From TrEMBL:
It comes from the Bacteria. The keyword Translocase applies. Residues 25-273 form the ABC transporter domain. InterPro entries: AAA+_ATPase (IPR003593), ABC_transporter-like_ATP-bd (IPR003439), ABC_transporter-like_CS (IPR017871), P-loop_NTPase (IPR027417), PstB-like (IPR005670). SUPFAM superfamilies: P-loop containing nucleoside triphosphate hydrolases. Keywords: ATP-binding, Nucleotide-binding, Translocase, Transport. It comes from Cellulomonas rhizosphaerae. GO terms for cellular component: membrane. This is Phosphate ABC transporter ATP-binding protein. It holds the Pfam family ABC_tran. The keyword ATP-binding applies. Gene3D superfamilies: P-loop containing nucleotide triphosphate hydrolases. One of its GO terms (biological process) is phosphate ion transmembrane transport. GO terms for molecular function: ATP binding; ATP hydrolysis activity; phosphate transmembrane transporter activity.
Length: 277
């Protein structure tokens, strides 16, 4: 059984009990704007190493924005502004002396819609991210990396006989696991997943969940999901985001998944996790 996690988001600045996994990623008082529209207000969240953190909450409350901030993608959007800090293993990923590619190489991202390069072979899809982040690799090393990443993504057995076939020929669920394999190829410390199963059927969803469960422990995972059963199945801790009328998004409550579902402290969390919204 996993030890209890601090359930008050403000506690991240207090000493962490020794039995609690150290945070791989930590957001400190993160606020975000699009132009003059403030969409996140001082969000603090600690994402412990090797654990799965689920971000839940209604549409429009800033979950995807928060995820993009964790990967320095927010700054790619014109008019986007940011305040606060994001630490990866204690280092500020926004530190101007660190290159963006250093942070991105440590942080994989998987989106709602599977986005493999459709015309590119399955094997080349897996390694596509390496060249983008400036990593060179030999041919035999490449073959073993392809096998390793497809295995970790739970796809190897299904595709091992057709590695040169185009990625676009796979089913939606297979394409999503191919995207997971591609993100694993750079050996990320953190994997960010934005509603990775929303476009998938129940069987494919189950496969992706199994993949997440197998990766937990090795990789720190942050997953946005609207599926409460999925949050309950795969996550160790949950953060409930909410943006109420005219108020920017923020975390209402955060804690161990069992507590969030079993005995939420805030009535808004209780309503949300029980489908009353
Ligand atoms: P969620 O993922 O929880 O549905 P988002 O992070 O996508 O929420 O959106 C949070 C708020 O930010 C919403 O009000 C949305 O309209 C706004 N927003 C998101 N992306 C952009 C963008 N590129 N430009 C302007 N506003 C945006
Ligand atoms: Mg979203």
């Amino acid at each position: 059984e996993a030890p209890a996690l601090p359930d008050d988001p403000t506690q991240i600045l207090a000493p962490v009990p020794t039995e609690v996994a150290l945070p791989a990623m930590e957001a400190r008082a993160v606020s975000a704007w699009f132009g003059t529209h403030k969409v996140l207000e001082r969000v603090s969240l600690s994402m412990p190493a090797g654990r799965v953190t689920a971000l839940i909450g209604p549409s429009g409350c800033g979950k995807s924005t928060f995820l993009r901030i964790l990967n320095r993608m927010h700054e790619l959007i014109p008019s986007a502004a940011l305040a606060g800090e994001v630490l990866l293993d204690g280092q500020d990923i926004y530190d101007p002396v660190r290159r963006v590619t250093d942070a991105r190489r440590s942080i994989g991202m998987v989106f709602q819609k599977p986005n493999p390069f459709p015309a590119m072979s399955i094997q080349d899809n897996v390694t596509a991210g390496l060249s983008l982040t400036g990593v060179r690799i030999g041919t035999s090393e490449r073959a073993s990396l392809v096998e390793e990443c497809l295995t970790r993504a739970g796809l190897w057995n299904e595709v091992k006989d057709r590695l040169p076939a185009p990625g676009g020929g796979l089913s939606g669920g297979q394409q999503q696991r191919l995207c997971i394999a591609r993100s694993l190829a750079v050996r990320p410390k953190v994997l960010l997943m934005d509603e990775p199963c929303s476009a998938l059927d129940p069987t494919s969803t189950r496969r992706v969940e199994e993949t997440i469960q197998a990766l937990a422990g090795e990789v720190t995972i942050v997953i946005v999901t609207h599926n409460m059963q999925q949050a309950a199945r795969v996550s160790d801790q949950c953060a409930f985001f909410l943006a109420e009328q005219g108020v920017p998004g923020g975390i209402v409550e955060h804690g161990a998944t069992a507590q969030m579902f079993g005995s939420p402290r805030d009535s808004r969390t209780e309503d949300y996790v029980n489908g009353r919204f």
